[in-house]
Amino acid sequence: MFGSAIKYFIKMKISLSVACLFLLPFCLQSQSLILKDGWKIKTGDDMAWARPEYDDSGWKAIQPARVFETQGFEGYDGYAWYRLKFFLPSSLKEKSHLKESLNIFLGKIDDADITYLNGVEIGRTGRLDNDPKGYETEWQKDRNYTLPANHPALHWDADNVLAVRMDDANGGGGMWNGTPQVAFLDLIDYVRMDALTHAFELLPGRMTKTVLFSNTYNKPIKGIFTVEINQNGGIIPYSRELLTLEASSVFEKKIPLSDSLHGIVQITFAEQETGKQLRAAQEIPYILTPPEAPAPKINTPEVYGCRPGAPFQFYIAATGTTPMTYDASNLPMGLTLDKTTGIITGSIPEEGTYRVLLKVKNARGEVSKNFRIEAGRGIALTPPMGWNSWNCWGLSVSDAKVRASANAMVQSGLMRHGWTYINIDDGWEAPERAADGTMVTNDKFPDMKDLSGYLHGLGLKLGIYSSPGPRTCGGFLGSYQHEQQDADSYKDWGIDYLKYDWCSYGSIAPQNPSLDDYKKPYFVMRDALANTGRDIVYSLCQYGMGNVWEWGHEVGGNVWRTTGDIEDTWESLKNIGFAQETPASFNGPWYGFGDPDMLVVGMVGWSDQLHQSRLTPSEQYTHITLWSLLSAPLMIGCDMSKMDAFTYNLLSNDEVIAIDQDPLGKPPKRVKNDENLQVWVKPLSDGSQAVGVFNMKAELQEIDLKWSDIGLKTPQIYRDLWRQKGKIAGQSIKLRLPAHGCALYKISG
Ligand code: GLA
């Protein structure tokens, strides 16, 4: 199916080389037996296929590192087996430094597997469909099955048969991403050097980088630990010492750094006996957003849309010292403001445009802002902003994790910059519906209504996730043939946002869906949501198929995903973000907004194992700048409760956010697009223009950008929005942009 094709395309984008960069073991083995050729496949399931003597001569040939959909099994979901006969020479052992444990690497397997060697089970990952504990996908996990060299299943200097029993729930399936190989583990393979678990700690005057080491070997491992600073290609030695990693232990190595350092920290651990190395490099974070002022400032967007008669909730986002009092003159009938919390609630009975004056006061002064409520002309008139559980927690999301994020949204102060939605992605659904067909939550979500009540009390909103198909992408229950029942549950639970993800609808739609086929399930849920009478933001997720930006509005969407899933790599960010000119050209407050996917900043991981985003600080500035120019929905994808100072600073720049939330909602134009540099210009509601300048090179670039080169008149005044500093400009502007970094200006001249 086309849906499935998109799905495996998405899955294929993660590369093994990226994994190696982050110092996973098994990447540096020198003596390995490559198991690339000779694999065979059969769909179905039969335990006799595990036996080495089974005659598989009639099976089809298959390549291991590529999903089977691209190799003649288009659209296949379900059980399949892969088999390989290979010779295991004892010379592999002779040439290895350590000769204790042999690792069999199979790449990744979509979705779950049990692997046999010569008929003996040697490992399993995920859970197959018929597992008593329930199905569990592990499609993104590397398969490394390790055996002692004297394991009876290993036949040295003889033929061996690997048989992999696998279960593909939907989308891509089979072995993918990584060339299977067999190798002895070396000392370095027992060491993990992890620079991503801890963010740089930024304190006044100093900075600390913590590197986490673990040694899983039963003896100490020694090595030279070197720190260098790479400043624009010039390497400055920083420290060098002998480290002893005790047997079976974890060790935190702290690197104190001065906060005036710029550039890239390069760290190396060279194991003493073999010289084999682990390396990591990270750009030192730099802070651009100035500290929040004590005087009151209203950060709420200028316009908010609702439906007449629907429950209304709006929080006046404002910064400044507390306590603060809020006021609103000219509020339409039916609404009341809580003057101490800043939360407006009620319901507007009549359609209309209501012009309100918001006021916020604290010990440092008082400030006001014009605010327009549009009742009956659409909702989500500026791109929704908030948090979504997927990029951090994946399917391990729970009520407790959602509440922790909501609490952090409030306590960190981010909510006061306009971040509102707390959205649960896949993983909240029970395995079965109730007897009457009503949707039920799983035991990680004991009471959805209580959760929404809690969030609403904080001034936040709650989002949820489902699929028009029978199953979600994570294999949970979808809404197929229960759409109205589900929408009614959402109303009952107090849901404010629905992400509706195509996933297994690919098996309902015809093989080559027409435009009408793409639209069909989205119309159904649109009507179901409308029947609830609740303002539920409708977020379409079908990866951009059929140019969804051309008809997302027609099917009632407020926002629509325009791409496959984003990852925390520059490749992913670049390929998605800089391909949005056409999709975004449809954007507008009365139409809807293209969604290039959620933010990959802070601690992410798509599971309960989180790591710092692999995007450099400069790339993260580019991420937020580009998404703001695009008027993209801004959904934070990290564990909010572990937000570091850099990430908070990145997400709390009101002048940058205002570009995303500009009420005109006009799309940007790419006025310069070459290999090294891109410039995007977006018209703003006050007649000025936002200009984003992006360094596409992997090294620092000095740029002399002439206004005339990007179609602008020589301006009088421009403002650096990240630094929140205004300047007078001449004919051009001189820029020094770090690798993959950017600048964002507002030009009013
Ligand atoms: C798809 C979507 C993701 C996420 C997962 C959940 O891959 O594109 O954003 O919602 O499904 O399973």
Can you put this structure into words, describing what you see?
- With 749 residues, the chain is an alpha+beta fold.
- It folds into five domains: 30-89 and 103-185, Sandwich (Jelly Rolls), CATH 2.60.120.260; 190-283, Immunoglobulins (Immunoglobulin-like); 297-375, Immunoglobulins (Immunoglobulin-like), CATH 2.60.40; 385-665, Aldolase class I (TIM Barrel, Alpha-Beta Barrel); 670-748, Immunoglobulin-like (Sandwich).
- The protein is built from 13 helices and 46 strands.
- The strands form eleven sheets. The chain has an eight-stranded parallel β-sheet.
- α5 (399-411) runs parallel beside α6 (448-458).
- Residues 1-29 have low confidence and may be disordered.
- Bound molecules: alpha-D-galactopyranose (GLA).
Salient structural properties:
single chain, 749 residues, alpha+beta, Jelly Rolls, Immunoglobulin-like, 8-stranded parallel beta sheet, 13 helices, 46 strands, 16% helix, disordered N terminus, binds alpha-D-galactopyranose
